[in-house]
Amino acid sequence: MDRAALDSLARAFADAEAPTRPHYEGLFTYFLAGYLAHASPRGATARYPGMPSANGPAMDRLEGFSRIAPLLAAWLHGGGQPAVRLPDGRSVDLAARLREAIVAGTDPESPEYWGDIKHWGQAIVEAADIALALWLARGPVWDRLDPAQQAQAARWLAQVNGKRIPDNNWHLFVAQVDAVLAALGQPVDGSAMASHYERAKSFYRGNGWFEDGAMPGRPSFDYYNAWGFHYQLQWLARIDPALDARFIDESLAGFAARYRYFFGPQGFPIMGRSACYRMAAPVALVFAQAAHPEVVSPGEARRAVDTTWQYFIRNGALAEGNVTQGYFGTDARIVENYSGPASCLWSLRSLVAAFALPADSAFWTAPPEPLPVERGDFELQLAEPGWVLVGDRRSGAITIRTGHPGDPPLEPHRLTDRMLTLLTGKPRRPKNHAAKYYRSRYDSARPFCIDS
């Protein structure tokens, strides 16, 4: 991998006064080149360097493919050319690469087989991304698999059914896999899809806010509401337009009306778990600008995506064709044990939604518009999570006031835990649940994970 060329791509995006579509195409190439540099021979897995997850090295390698596959498929879905030229001059056929990887990953006789899907297995999460990639690129990928290969891929995906899972946003992963199987004409248990969808819907609390599962006594509102619930729901609505379209549409509109205030020129007030998915945060606005431009305009949504990606890239959030395991650089204090070297590629979800749009869509062509905090001060009551959101136009700072007393500090990643991780290969990182959820305020100008 030509690191100098990759650094140049990232720097060009970060340095742009207002990123254009070609800047984003350079960012796409950055991640594609990173994947290819770390991929297995047939591309079904990728071994990115970084801190391991508790799910084991095989699952970490699967995430190296599954979490970038939707981006490659979105490129094709939005009309991008299958042949993409890399910084070193090579040309890559994305459709052929996806086909080969999916055939290798779902073949039990292949050395790159992803393994059987088990109860509570992380592969259930990854299956949803792989299914989405198949649906997004169904013409150049799925339709060009032969019937035996299609049946093989469908059998692997269908293993998500009947498995025990966490009672939270995971229900949407199973529903999405089944919706894709049905859309592709494969056998599917429709009752399973419906029951998982209805369970996820039962977490709805109004105005676009979902609790992330049934966790009595624990705060369960965070950015999963955007990069988890609304992301999955919007794809479900496209894969199966007959599935509860009115609710999915109205909940997105209700959420976007206030969520648009979270973003500013210096990031957003991070809190909660999976903070390393940070660049995915504006994804709900990408969907909303297309469905409800009266709520959030294409230019404002584009500005939210622009400023988010530029802010984090300028602060060191990209390295070696990947997203760093932290908030800016790598930071074990905020990375959960379920996260591995490629897990943070969920940050690409905002780009997945963007590249799935045609290049002549308003999102790509409308001039960027100022964000709410760039227009004036505000103070908003968010009843569902129980927060007060405050914006200061002069500084550009945005703050979540939670109502909790005190400001629990981040626990350090202790030397003994680092040594045990090296010896056993299994992560031992501090949970830091209190610091992520129970601080009195979370400020975009002073991220809790930077100054603690």
Taken as a percent bin, the fraction of beta residues is: 5-15%
Compute the CA-based radius of gyration: 21 Å
Broad shape = globular
Major β-sheet profile: 4 strands, antiparallel
Euclidean distance between termini CA atoms:
35 Å
Q: Which structural class should the secondary elements be placed in?
A: alpha+beta
| Order of adjacent strands in the largest pleated sheet | 7-8-9-10
The level of helicity is: 40-55%
The residue-averaged pLDDT reads 95
Count of extended strands? 10
User: What are the low-pLDDT stretches, counting only 5+ consecutive residues below 50?
Assistant: none
Query: Strand-and-helix sequence, N→C?
Result: HHHHEEHHHHHEEHHHHEEHHHEEEHHE
Quickly count the helices. 18
Topology:
Blueprint: H1 3-15, H2 21-38, H3 57-66, H4 69-77, E1 83-85, E2 91-93, H5 94-105, H6 123-136, H7 147-158, H8 170-183, H9 190-201, E3 204-206, E4 209-210, H10 224-239, H11 245-259, H12 283-291, H13 298-314, E5 318-319, E6 322-323, H14 349-355, H15 362-365, H16 372-375, E7 378-382, E8 387-391, E9 398-401, H17 415-424, H18 433-437, E10 441-443
Describe the structure.
It contains 18 helices and ten strands. With 452 residues, the protein is α+β, with helices and mostly antiparallel strands. β5 and β6 (322-323) form a beta hairpin. It starts with a helix and ends in a 9-residue tail after the last strand.
